[in-house]
Design brief:
It is a single chain. The chain is mainly α and about 190 residues long. It has a domain at about 60-190: Tetracycline Repressor, domain 2 (Orthogonal Bundle), CATH 1.10.357. The chain contains eight helices and no strands. The termini are far apart. Keywords: Transcription, Transcription regulation. It comes from Paenibacillus whitsoniae.
Length: about 190
Amino acid sequence: MAARPGLDPEAVLQAAIALADREGLEQLSLASLAAALHVKTPSLYNHIKGLPDLKRQLSRRGLILVKDAMVEAVIGKSEDAALLAAGLAYVGFARKQPGLYEAVTAPLTDYEDPELQEAGAQVVSFLLKLLAPYGLSEEDALHVVRGFRSLVHGFASLEGQNGFRMGLDRDESLRRLLQTYLLGLRAGSGRK
């Protein structure tokens, strides 16, 4: 079957992202994607290898974009201000692209995929660079990255599931959470 003119792997991926963000990752199927693209489902196989491949591509793209959002947010900032900006950007990405964020955090069947490993490693490497001024050992810095991810992912997940129903400003709650974490980081690294 010949590929539809104007339809390429990037167009398929963009349509999948839009569909996942609008309907949720669980609602994404090849049939729904084909309908959104006005093609028959078999036509998608000219551009993707199937739904697992598409979800892997979504996860990889999401990792790249969440890192890009954090990089953009920290320009001109350092130490606490940079980590705070990165945390706010991470949650901002989850708010803006909920389906794609879901793909980033969804369990994958192929943990050994080199492209996914590289995209994930770039996120970790970026965060480790932000932590360099704190003078942490490599092991301690990796623990801090895990803690940071746990904080921002937990916040984003609770918010995405409508877990914050009080009338309090969520951005202020997030800022206070990150500032408290940063106070602990400074105390643990011997810096005030």
